[in-house]
Amino acid sequence: xxxxxxxxxxxxxxxxxxxxxxxxxxxxxxxxxxxxxxxxxxxxxxxxxxxxxxxxxxxxxxxxxxxxxxxxxxxxxxxxxxxxxxxxxxxxxxxxxxxxxxxxxxxxxxxxxxxxxxxxxxxxxxxxxxxxxxxxxxxxxxxxxxxxxxxxxxxxxxxxxxxxxxxxxxxxxxxxxxxxxxxxxxxxxxxxxxxxxxxxxxxxxxxxxxxxxxxxxxxxxxxxxxxxxxxxxxxxxxxxxxxxxxxxxxxxxxxxxxxxxxxxxxxxxxxxxxxxxxxxxxxxxxxxxxxxxxxxxxxxxxxxxxxxxxxxxxxxxxxxxx
Amino acid sequence: xxxxxxxxxxxxxxxxxxxxxxxxxxxxxxxxxxxxxxxxxxxxxxxxxxxxxxxxxxxxxxxxxxxxxxxxxxxxxxxxxxxxxxxxxxxxxxxxxxxxxxxxxxxxxxxxxxxxx
Lengths: 322, 117
Fold this sequence. Notes:
The complex is a heterodimer of chains A (about 325) and B (about 120). With about 325 residues, chain A is an alpha/beta fold. Helix content of chain A is about 50%, strand content about 20%. In chain A, strand 7 (about 215-220) and strand 8 form a beta hairpin. The longest helix of chain A is centred in the middle third of the chain and has 33 residues, at about 110-140. In chain B, helix 2 runs antiparallel to helix 3 (about 50-65), helix 2 (about 20-45) runs antiparallel to helix 6 (about 105-115) and helix 3 packs antiparallel against helix 4. Chain B has a single domain (about 10-110), classed as Four Helix Bundle (Hemerythrin (Met), subunit A). Chain B has six helices and no strands. By secondary structure, chain B is mostly helical. Classes of the chains: A alpha/beta (about 325), B mainly alpha (about 120).
């Protein structure tokens, strides 16, 4: 555990440092409050601090106030070391944001025990953050495949369509559906079906760029958003993705299962600025056409007649989102 | 071990019987104390209450860590007086501080010799 010690007095610093190093702390020792605040405010700074009250540049309570001003970073547990013992001083120290205080000269056992209290609180914070992050992940990802869930992938698609229109670029939208998936479930069982879905997700992710988006749109249907994708190469990219799925059967507990996908591709630049729902409907029609053409192929949604923007604007999109 | 103006047993407990650390602390004190002592003397002579408070505070911390209780108390009295803004008794309190700390360095020297045996 890293700990910061701030004390302008050399003997105190040496005593604290040695006492804490002896029990395994990784000690950073500084001589004034300014340097202490700078160290503690670093994103990867120590999360535990022992601060002398009276110091040059910035005193201990001043350091506490500065550290507490940060909102988003991890909690820092701060213990003030002080020769001040009056109730007013203690209250002022705690009001500044210190978690605890210890009077000097300190007793080594008491010091270590109070720091263990700090570590318990920091551990609790770590566990709470982990739980929050797990919940955040669960709220935004599909439980089986860990891809973006339907709600999030639609939000991402809408954002990308708006952005690509604004920047004069193109987004490729792929609605991809596993062929004969019902038969997979009926023949090999739902467990094997789930394994096919997971492997499909993995193959989709590994065949797109890090800044593209892949989501589970429904049962065996996936939505892939290729950002800033050159219209001339969109079909090639879609074909590569289709081949990545079909290349090898999926190994499952029920045996190797052949898997292919039918894909409806829509290139946003060919459609002008239209509501996302309309584009999704067109991509779905292209997917339906791919199924009708024998499956395991890509069909492109093409607008009928000349391309022009409908009256739909970015402001309309924002209104619809609300 | 000679009887010193500091509580040697308490000091040993504070360093958790780490003789090497004890020696380190004594050496730091031997180097730092005369500097702060002299700075305090000059501040007292000038009647500089702010500086008297700062130096007396530093000395109080060092002496407390060393378990030199009487000396730490004498420094604390000077600090308290200086923080109140009163400077008329600086001379008297500094003389008292001088008196209780005068034997410290020779005693520490003796300790260092004893510790190195």
